Amino acid sequence: MTDCDEMTEMTASFWLRLSLIVNLFITFISFPVLLTALCYINSQQLFHPNTRIQIKVHIFALLAHSIGRVGLHSFDLVNYFTNTGCEALPNFYRCLIVRGLYNFGMALAAMCTTSLVIERSVALLYNSTYEMCGKGFGILLGLLQLLLAFAFLFKLYFDASFTPVPNVTLYYCQTLASGHGSVWTINAPLYVVMVGQIVCRFIFWYIGVLTKKKRSTQKLQTLSTRYTLEQGIRSIKALNMFINANCFVFFFLSFIGTTLHFNAPNMRRPTYFALVEVIHFVPTYGILLSVYTYYSLKKLDTKQKTSLTKSIHVDPSHYLIEFKKQIS
Fold first, then answer.
1. I need a surface site. Which of 56, 66, 186, 265 has the fewest CB within 10 A?
2. Residue 89 predicted with pLDDT over 60
3. Which pTM does this prediction carry?
4. What span, in angstroms and rounded, lies between the C-alpha atoms of 269 and 89?
5. Transmembrane region positions (predicted)?
């Protein structure tokens, strides 16, 4: 087919249009959910301020991805319903901007697990003084997330062209649509993310084991140390699902994404692009994670209040006995 015939097939594809419409609808829903989650996490005292900074960077990343996605799908849908043939070919620079924001948000969101693992590791290592640790460390970890995201994007865009290339037709807003890189230009960074997620999940589990062990075996503990370890145990419980979801989603995206990219030559263009947008379900992930985290924290908060209520009704002499045990 000619380029114009290829583009006519793109604009008329039912599955591509459906994929863009559904994803655009979900993305619009994600905005109020993510903004509410941002306000809620900011007010949560369960987490150390540095932990909250990492989660807020993650939410910012999801919002950035959603903004890029709204621009990407909105322009394409208007284009597909109003134009046909070569008139529907996307603008190169528009694609560069919206796809860049789309990829930036996704890359930054994938790095949250790494910063949380480092933050919880430092909290455990310096448990006697971490309570007094300022937000500077959390900001540095947030910058680390940005650095890792830019490193990922550097490799992703290394062979991409930043100006239109003659004799290369841009049918859809792809990262490498006008580049000269191989399929490994995309797949190699994704494999690194897959391995990184597995390693971080294992380390986070081990941090939880060490924190509980240290809290139960350490006899002489200052009030600050006990508070830090208890907060660490509560934070790990609350963050467990967050880490699990983050690891699963970005491992899944990387695994399915690499499989899809390798099989792209055997698929029709509209089908391939429709599947690309389907597997990148980052806004859906943001909505489900925000809702689940909210109810999980509410449940944990209810348990703490119940425990406190029960402790109030304990015989006062019990506290004296426990105090003597601690100072003996």
1. 265
2. yes
3. 0.84
4. 14
5. 20-41, 139-158, 188-209, 241-260, 272-295
CA angle 272, 275, 278 (to 5 degrees): 155
Which of 195, 110, 189 has its CA nearest to residue 153?
189
Tokens of 103: 């990829």
Structural domains in the chain plus CATH codes: 3-327 (1.20.1070.10)
pLDDT range class, residue 177, cuts 50, 70, 90:
very low
Amino acid in the structure at residue 159:
D
- % of the chain with per-residue pLDDT over 90: 27
Give the integer Cα–Cα distance in Å for 123 and 62: 26
- Does residue 64 carry a pLDDT above 80? yes
